[in-house]
Amino acid sequence: VLHIWPELSKDFWFRGVIDAGLGVARNIDNTDYTGMIERRVICGPCFLKLKLSMKWIAQGIFKITKGDIAAWAPKLPVQKAIIYFLSPNIAEEMHTGHLRSTLIGETLARVLEYSGVKVIRRFHEGDDLDFKVHAAGLAV
């Protein structure tokens, strides 16, 4: 709630972030997610914890195991998306942090493809500045 508070405070009667969190918690039962949420708790001034219903999770797993996984794919209003993510920096020593952008981008691309969106993947290779600096140093 804290992150969206500036927008909420313009259009709604909430007196603060706690009041806004309570409003969300109270009104979540009036949404399509009623069976999904088992418990909701306001934690401190900025956080709303939601506990998913084990029954809802079990029903979903049962659907998937019966071969009805397509029912889980959301129908999206977009037909094409470009996922633009960074390639690992080959000028530095390799570590797991280099894979973060690739993993997030590839996961997002696969989820969108599964939902019927045509995905175009684009990788940013970097500007090769490290190599230009090294080459300039060698040329001197």
TrEMBL record:
Pfam families: tRNA-synt_1d
One GO BP: arginyl-tRNA aminoacylation
Keyword RNA-binding tagged: no
Boundaries of every Arginyl-tRNA synthetase catalytic core domain copy: 79-127
Top-level taxon of the source organism: Eukaryota
InterPro entries: Arg-tRNA-ligase, ArgRS_core, Rossmann-like_a/b/a_fold
Annotated GO MF terms: arginine-tRNA ligase activity; ATP binding
SUPFAM superfamilies given in the database record: Nucleotidylyl transferase
Keyword Signal: no
Keyword annotations of the record: Aminoacyl-tRNA synthetase, ATP-binding, Ligase, Nucleotide-binding, Protein biosynthesis
Gene3D superfamilies registered for this protein in UniProt: HUPs
Protein family per UniProt: Belongs to the class-I aminoacyl-tRNA synthetase family.
Protein name: Aminoacyl-tRNA synthetase, class 1a, anticodon-binding
The organism of origin for this protein: Tanacetum cinerariifolium (Dalmatian daisy)
